[in-house]
Structures are given as C-alpha cells and as structure tokens.
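Go through this chain.

——
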Amino acid sequence: MATTTAAQQRQQARVAYDAFLAACPSRQLFDRLSDKWVGLVLCALGGGTAGPDVAGSGVPGPLSWSELARALAGVSPKMLTQTLRSLERDGLVSRTVTPTVPVTVTYEATELGLSLHTMVRGMKSWAETHMDDVLAARAEHDARDLPGSAP
C-alpha cells in the first residue's frame, strides 16, 4: 500500500467533491441549494427582510412555521414543510419544539446555514436588482424569435 503525502490527500479530496463529475455527491447538495424555496427560507432565517408580518431586523433568529409561510408568499404548506425537513437533514436549519399549548415549533439557521446565507442573500439581492435587465433581455429575445422563424 502506497503512502500519500498531505498535499496528495488534499488533492484527492478536492477531486472527490467536484460537482462537474457525474458521480460527485455534492451534485445532490447543489441541486437542493438551487431550489428557490431553499434560498428564500435561508434568507428569511438569516434575518433578511421577510415582509410586514415578520421582523426583517437583519439579525438571524428563529421563526415559526407560520411566520415563514407568511414571509414566503406563494409557498404551499407541503413545499414549506418539505423544504424545512430537507434543510434540517442537511444540517442547515435546526428545529426546536417547545412544549406549550399549543406546541410551539421554531426554525433557525445553524452555523452551517448561516455560512451559506451570505451567498444566498447575495443571489436574492442580485435578482431583485437586475430583474428589469432580465425582463428586457427576455422581451428582446422573444421579439427576435417569433413563431415560424428558423432557429
């Protein structure tokens, strides 16, 4: 059995998690993180402006399921629940159950989730800032590609 140096081990580790490779397990995580609801949940839990019913203090903190549902207009109850479960499984969100009447359940971004929050918040901000440019590009593209024209 050949001995490998620390530098060789680091190089092997880098190759092992290359999302460009079909068999790389990071592809599953990349797929999950590219879901719009995942990004928006992480933004809300990271203290992003979440709407009039939820404090957008800019400070990360716990939110209840109903606060998240109000913040994320258009998310179905099933999709929100699935998203929160997947984020909890990946270690990005923690779920806390408080035995009250009725039971109180809150969700909070973990340290790992907060480390991702900065990038997700940046993507959200970029999308909001450049939406007019994207809409204009779409309109221009669609005007060029009228039905019946050759590709």
In short: The helical segments are 6-16, 26-33, 36-45, 65-71, 77-89, 111-144. The first strand starts at residue 63 and ends at 64. Residues 50-55 have pLDDT under 50 and may be disordered. The radius of gyration is 20 Å.
